[in-house]
Every structure is written in C-alpha cells, then in structure tokens.
User: Fold these one by one.
Assistant:
Number 1:
Amino acid sequence: MKNIMKIIIALFTSVSLISSVSAGELTVTGNAKATYNILSGDVNQGKGIGIANEFDLGATGELDNGWSWNYQVQFDPGNTAASSGGSNGQVDDSRLTLTTDYGTLGIFVSEGGLDTDNSASQSVYGRPTDIGLASGMKDGPGIDGFNNIQYHLPAGVLPYEMTAKLAYASGQDNKMNSSNAKGNAVENQYGNAAQQFQITAAPIDGLKLFADYYEEKGAYVHVIQQYEAGSIAATYTTGAFSFGASHTLNAPLIQATSALTNTIANASTAGGNPGSARTYETTKGSVAFNVNDALSVSFEREESERKQFVRATEYDIEAQAVQAAYTMGGMTVALSYGQTDNVGYADGVDVEQTLLAVTMAF
C-alpha cells in the first residue's frame, strides 16, 4: 500500500506541473428501459410495470502532454436522499479519472466496484437474482460501497493481457460529497477502511480469467472475524457459444457481545450479518448461444450456501433462469423466466418470475 501511495503522489505532482488542458467533450449515454415483471409463489408481489430512469453524463479531455481525463456522473431521478447517503436525491454515482503513461488514477464516489463474482454471467438480459427479485443472496462485496481512490496499471505491462487494479477506501463514507468535503466524524465499530484488488487475464483466444480480493479493517469491538471475501471467475467463447462460471467465498464481520461470549453482536441488517453467518459460498454458471445476429438465448444457475456461526439447519438459495433477447438496431426485447428456491436462505420460500423488458439504447 505504501508503494501505491507513492505512485499516486507522483502522479498528482506531475499533474501540478502541467499548465494547460484542452477543451473537454460532453457525452450522454444510457438507455430507456420499460419492464413488465410478474412474481408468484411464496413471495407473491403481483405484476409490476416500470421504466428505468438512469443515465450517465460524461466529459472527457486531454492535457497538453497527451494524458487524458474522464468525468462521469449518473443521474437517477427515482433515487431518494436517504438511499443516496444524504445527497440531493438526483445524483447517484460519480468518478474522475486521469489516464497517464504510468497508469490510471481515479477518485470514485459510490462507484468503481472491482468485485468479479458476476463478471462471468452470460445471461442475455440479467442474472436470475438481479432482475427485480429480492432473493437475499449474498454476493461478493465491492469497494464501490464506499468513496474510494484507485490505481490501474497501464495496459501491456503484464503478460497474457493481464490487468491489475487496486482500490482503497479510507472510511465508510458513501455520500455524494462536494469538493472540500470532510469525512465521517466518528467511524463506527464495523471498520474504518477497506481495500480491494482485481486481476484479469486472457491467456488464450476465447478465454478470460478474473479474480478479486476484498477486506475491511479497523473494527474494534470484540472482533471474532474481520470482513473479507474473494472471487474467481472465467468465461470461454467458441463459435456461437459462450460459457461462464464463478466461485465466491464471503466471510462477513463477526463481533461478540463481549470478549468471552459466542453471541453475535452484529446479527442484524444494520450490523452487517443478519443471518449470524460464518461464511457464504456461492457458485454461478451460465451458457449463451447466438442463434443469429439478432437473437440470443441463455441459461444461468446460481447457488449460495450460508454456514452459520452457531450450528443450525441451513438452506441454500438456488436460482435459475432461461432468457431470450432479440435486437433490432437500438432496440432490444428480452424475455426471462426463472425460479428461485429458499429466498433469504429460508426453507420452502420459493418464487417464480416472468419478466418482459424493452430497452432503447442511446
């Protein structure tokens, strides 16, 4: 971490010596998506109609020595002040990056996750547990849960098209702060720093590999287990077929009510361990087939096992979905049918989902 900070300081020093910047270019990207979502079974939430409301405003430019910068902010009119950590309820995530000959340096506000547990998904619309169903599945954590600073190695430095990214969050702040903002006055007992590392590689044609490691530090009240997690993933493409698989081990923070007890103090949603879990182990696999240039179909299965701190009967979340997507120019029509068993790691809580989505890209 000391070497990373030296690199970051050197980059900031170099920037301070540059006197001019070329005019930037503004861009707007995103999509307009309408969905019709039907949930039935033990969690019967009826039929829902909605329209996605997020888009990204970006700005790019170049310094007089050839280095480039990029700014992006996401607008989400449906967001509330509470869910955005006290922001104005309209701005969701933002980032400012500087790409140099020595790598990329970035400041990320609730953005820049490096977790790879979902990098292998080949679903043509979305993963079975990430399309409008609150399954309760514990995914790998991302550094984008906090405001963070990152350094990315330049391309071509490592063999096999390897890339490496490092991120550090100095506290639990995740608010949409303005410049000159101060940090949290008092960090709570669940940790006051987090870091995440990501490595990707493409050793042979068609094969891509992903890995990440995440940890939080600084919790100080009767800590039994500090929070850490890691994932490995791979994708392989051959002809019209593509395959993906990932495996994640997630060890949440465990705190005791006292130094001599095995009663968990943070066994709640606010405490970060509502299921009194010792570990979560999640495996995902998927396959997709391009029928032609317009039509694609896919199948994905996800399974997550929770092992509790105190011996108890445990139930795995199992989810699967078959999907089809048809693209016509800038419009994509997708249909998904899926089933999820043991929602929230609870026995017999099973849900079926049918979803229709129409997306217009811009």
Number 2:
Amino acid sequence: MKSLQVITLGCSKNTVDTEHLLSQVKDSWRIVPEGEICPVDVLVINTCGFIGDAKEESIQTILNAAERKKSGEVGRILVFGCLSQRYLSQMPTLIPEVDFWFGARDLDPIVKALGCVPVNDPARLRTDHRAYAYLKISEGCDRRCSYCAIPFIRGAHKSVPIETLVSEASALATDGVKELILIAQDTTYYGLDLYKRRALAELLRRLSEVEGIEWIRIHYSYPADFPEDVLEEMRVNPKVCKYLDIPLQHISDKVLDKMHRNVDGEWTRTLIKKLRDQVPGVVLRTTMIVGHPGEEKKEFEELLDFVREAKFERLGAFKYSEEEGTYGAVNYKDSVTKKEKERRLAELMQVQSGISLAFNESRVGNIERVLVDDYADGVLICRSQFESPEVDGEIVVKYNRQDFDGIPAEDLCGRFIDVKITGADEYDLIAVPV
C-alpha cells in the first residue's frame, strides 16, 4: 500500500473530521501516524483559519510540506479545512506546490481524490486511544456574532441525525471510549433544522443509553434561548456531567450589543443564576473577549466585577483580533491598543486565578470518582466530571502498585477509580486512591 499521513491543526472539530476521513480510506492506504517523520506518498493537511495565530500556523505547516515535497520526502499534498475554505480562490496561486485544495466540508471529494468511494458511515479511525472522544453533533452556525468568521467558513447550521450520532457513539464505546464530549459551533441549537425543535436533551437521553458510555459532557453552548430541558437532564441523568461550557464573551450591554450576541447583561446574570439553582453543584466554564470595540475602562471594570460575582470555576479569555470579512472588521474601529489588550487579559486572568484556586481548595478532603487518562513519571493523570480534557486542570495520583491490587499502571488508563483530594493549586489537584 502507498502511505498516507494527515496533519490536523486547530480545534477538536477538525480532529473529528480527520477521523471520519481516515475511516473511509484506511483499507486502501497505509496510515502513517501524525508526528512520525518519514517519507509519505500523500500528505493531507487539515487547516484552521479562525484567528491570526491559527492561520499563521496553518500556512507555515503547508510551506513546510511544500519544502518536503521539493526534497522528495512527500509525493502529493492535499489541503482542506477552515483556512482552505476561507481563501480557496487565493491559495492555489500563492502555494502552487499543493496538488489539491478542498473546503471545510469537502470530505467526499477528498475521499474520491484518494481513489476511494465515499460511504455514509459514522465510523471513525481514532487518532489516539484515550477513554474520551469528541462527538460533533452539528456543523456550521446560523449566528452572526460580529467578531466571528465561522458562519462564512463553515456555512449554515446542519445537525447530524440522532440515529447517526447514537451509531457513532456505539462504535466509540466498542473502541473503549467512556466519555463523550459533545461539540459544535453551537450545541444548544441542535435539532432546530432537522426536527424543528431544540433536541439536545433528547440526544443526551439517547446517548446515555449507549452501553459503555459513562460520562457525557456539553461544550460550546450559546447563552441565548438556552433550552431548559437540558438543565433537567443534567440534574437527573447520572451520565450527564454537571459541567457546562457556555462562552459568554462579555457582560456589558454596550459590548454585547456590538458583538451581536442577542443577550444583555441582565439576561446573562439571570441565566447563570438559573444554571446554579436548577443544577446544584454544576461547574461552569466560560470564555471572555477583552479589548473588543466598545470596551472602554468602564466596560472592562464591569466585566471584572461580573467575573468576581459569578465565580466561574473555569474561565478562558482572548484578546480581540480583527478578522477580515466579519461585521466587526468592516464596521468597527479596533481602538484598543495591543499593549492594553494584553494588560486587560492579564488582569482578568489574575482575578480568575484566585477564583479557580478557591474552588479547587474547597474540594480538598472530598472523595471523587475520576477517569484515568494517562500514566507518566510515576503518576496517574486523572479527571473528575468537573474537568474537561485539554482545557482544564488535572487530578494527579501517585501510583503505587499495592494501592491498586497489583494492577499495572498502564492497565488503569481508561478506568474509573475513587480518590480523595489532598491538595490543590489554581489549576491541578493532588489525590490518593481510596
């Protein structure tokens, strides 16, 4: 067989796309793992084009591939994904060494270009063997946030049918997956196009019936018109993690209006209270943008006060960057200096650091059920339902074979164990087995 390697850049949604692609061509190609440096007949690059840094990384990766092609290490180069979609008319001229360019949703054409026949099959060839997997429940977005390029990169919202997702989840469970992380551009919009109703709660119920799946985690929830039946499912369904990723971006009415978020500060505060009241013990992760047009000193102080008030257990933040083609780039002046954006970001994260530390310290002495993700340097790397992989901290457990009835550390990976939390910092926790 000829050799094929895929380099995947960007978010977890791209990882899912890559795994769907590989599953359709694996019988005709010898798949070379990503990261392995060796000559390959075909190199496929799945790009990200969301923000400036991601675009630069994608372009540099393509240029590196072009150099490898010139030296004979790579035969053909195929590029797809967000960057390719966004600049499809320009890139072939700029980087002629690439043999084929495809858009973000062009999996079938890529499969055909690789000499295979596309099939309507939810199977995935996983690129790792961890006990968690991302499940992309929809593609595209109908929102029109002023700073975001996703709608014209990924297109309109399109839900994946429940039956297809259940089949995909069943295959993942057979492959050892214990935790599903639901992702989309907007998970709470799920089902409106297919079923004429928000169907995320129904999807949660159906996925929780899949044998082998123990945790289901929700990411990327849009705050406007949040479906309350999802909260009920989180409250009563033991398989649905009491954890919600809900990017709010800001609290100032002025900034939210300029962002086109379709909510105001009062709505946001009411929603956060509802989440806390209806799902006791829920852990909330959010993201904020600093330096957006309209954010003056008053609006930034309002954001800091809100973060102190809401006490989000997890929070990430980004500096506003002007993205060409977006409403904000066309209609707003990026008036906050780079230095000031960096200062505001640092101040916001300093506030959040104290909040995260207080939350983690409040768990010291608790006994919690954790999933073992990995083993390295004599410790088990674990997470509870309150930590999502790759974005949150970890629970570190020192491994002593006698504490686990002689089970080798490697065999514990992918299993659930009970631990007692004994120490904490603002990111990670320390625990011992019980």
